[in-house]
Amino acid sequence: MAEPLPPTGSRIPGIGLAKGLAVTLRTMTKKTVTAQYPDTQPDLPPRSRGVIGLFEENCTVCMLCARECPDWCIYIDSHKETIPAAAPGGRERSRNVLDRFAIDFSLCMYCGICIEVCPFDALFWSPEFEYAETDIHELTHERDKLREWMWTVPAPPALDPAAEEPKEIAAARKTAEKLAATQATQATQAEPDEPTVSTEPREGES
Questions:
Q1: At CA 105, angle to CA 100 and CA 123, rounded to 5?
Q2: Mean pLDDT throughout 105-133?
Q3: Cα–Cα dist 12/123, whole Å
Q4: What is the C-alpha separation between 129 and 34, in angstroms, rounded?
Q5: Among 47, 79, 81, 140, which residue's CB has the most CB atoms within a 10 Å radius?
């Protein structure tokens, strides 16, 4: 058999109506403010999501952002370039060179998946929002425009000093400490032994 519910506090009739009227009265007496946009720029929150900026130097043309985009609004073109061997007898290397990176903002739904999946931090949210066009076909912005927006990306917030150390930094720190300990051990072993001074008397000495 189910246990009975504990008794609830006594309700005052009409308390909900009174709270609603209080909110209405407070809103009615509040001073009206009209935003004078575009003469006055709005004061946006620091991490506003406007458009997507491209840091071209970090892009390796891995195509991960284009494949994960649910709207297929990212267009990437590239070609391969051969890099000569760095040393005689070495192997030549090839790398992808970015030819085109464009985002169709008429299709983009600003989900941010492309930014989340980018393994090389090449895409960032920019607070820029003034990119309206009169023709929908002009909402496809190429990499030059995406690169301009990159410089409007705010700096990341400071780390919480009480937060846990990121795994990448912890791993790098442990590797550096291990390398420093190995070098110190090798330097100690490489130092020549100091000559020992004999305290025993030689022959003919008293």
A1: 55
A2: 93
A3: 55
A4: 19
A5: 140
Q: What is the DSSP track for the chain?
A: -PPPPPPPPPPPTTHHHHHHHHHHHHHHTSPP----TTTS-----TT---EEEE-GGG-----HHHHH-TT--EEEEEEEEEE--SSTT---EEEEEEEEEEEETTT-----HHHHH-TT--EEEE-------SSGGGGEE-HHHHHHHHTTPPPPPPPPTTSPPPHHHHHHHHHHHHHHHHHHHHHHHHSPPPPPPP-SPPTT--
Q: Tokens 């004061």 map to which residue? A: 43
Distance CA(101)–CA(108), nearest Å, equals 14
CA 105 – CA 115 distance, rounded (Å): 15
At 109, list the tokens: 């739904």
Q: Which two tokens stand for residue 68?
A: 């994960």
What are the pLDDT digits (tens) for 19-73? 999 999 998 888 888 888 889 888 888 788 899 999 999 999 999 999 999 999 9
Rounded CA-CA distance 53/152 in Å is 8
**If we measure between CA atoms, which residue out of 23, 13, 122 comes closest to residue 76?**
122
The sign one gets for the Cα dihedral 112, 116, 118, 120 is: positive
Both tokens assigned to 104: 């169709």
| Widest distance between CA atoms in the chain | 119
Q: Report which residue type is found at 148.
A: E
